[in-house]
Write a structure and sequence with these properties.
The structure is a homodimer of 121-residue chains. The first copy, chain A, has helices spanning 3-14, 21-29, 37-49, 92-99, 115-119; strands at 54-56, 64-66, 73-77, 83-86, 105-112. Chain A has 121 residues and is an alpha+beta fold. Chain A folds into two domains: 3-66, Orthogonal Bundle (Arc Repressor Mutant, subunit A), CATH 1.10.10.10; 73-120, Dna Ligase, domain 1 (2-Layer Sandwich). In chain A, helix 1 packs across helix 2, helix 1 (3-14) packs across helix 3 (37-49) and helix 2 (21-29) packs across helix 3. Chain B binds a DNA duplex (30 and 30 nucleotides) through helix 3.
Chain lengths: 121, 121
DNA sequence: AAAAAAGTAGGAATGATTATCACTTTCATT
DNA sequence: AATGAAAGTGATAATCATTCCTACTTTTTT
């Protein structure tokens, strides 16, 4: 594992958040100023392949990345875009039973308006 | 509703499938050769706002559009990308109960390998 | 029919992501 | 320690779905 990859993984594991590739670059550059955005993307993809990081594909915004890979789903604020973790809301087994097929996985995003954004109205 | 918009909606309602904007353009041009891709996107967005069409955001491919808007979820083949309809696997109410919050909606995609792609191995 | 509003075609622009490539770094082997 | 292969990097260019822009056309209103 290269130093760059370590730093990127370090950023993602430093706290429970869901940054974009750009935000990861910003933070990583505090420890490694020459780091390039392409390297961030390349290593994020590798880390996802190794199951050390999880990508959260966003519908109308840059994708987010998650350094915590135990099973959980995401609650997304439709106003500010912030992503919250929630316990798994589905199981592969339940889906396989309902659908009567083998299932490879699922992506569930629940949309809501977060308390902060609700308060602003 | 402009003639273009009608044609685009007609394409989506002609059969149960999940075409991309490009595929919609191709089909719509059989009836309206001068139709422009920008017009397709513009009207798809409008139709989605009017809840006459549903967008299916794809993670690593162009988005799909669905002319059938009664509640249902999607089963996506990880190999060929084909999208199948399935009955709703979640309900807003169940999610609200589990999460103890108001919920605006959800996006659930279940990934599998479709029979055709399985057969190819 | 004129004026205003809405919609369109076509092409340029945008922006996230990926590819490319010359240049390091790593590291096992002599 | 030198070497050579393999892997990784930084910088930049390319890609490609989608959106934006503008002059033009169609529709609606008065």
């Amino acid at each position: 594992m290269s130093r760059q990859k370590e730093v990127i993984l370090g950023v993602l594991r430093a706290q429970r958040f869901h940054p974009t590739a750009d935000e990861i670059l910003l933070r990583a550059r505090q420890r490694m100023p020459a780091l390039a955005l392409g390297t961030v993307y390349r290593n994020l993809k590798a880390l996802c392949d190794e199951k050390k990081v999880r990508r959260i594909p966003m519908e109308d915004a840059p994708d987010r990345y998650d350094g915590f890979v135990e099973p959980h789903d995401h609650l997304v604020c439709t106003v500010c875009g912030k992503v919250y973790d929630v316990p798994p809301l589905q199981s592969k087994e339940a889906l396989e039973a309902k659908l009567a097929t083998r299932v490879d996985g699922y992506e569930l995003k629940v949309y809501f308006t977060c308390p902060k954004c609700q308060a602003k109205n």
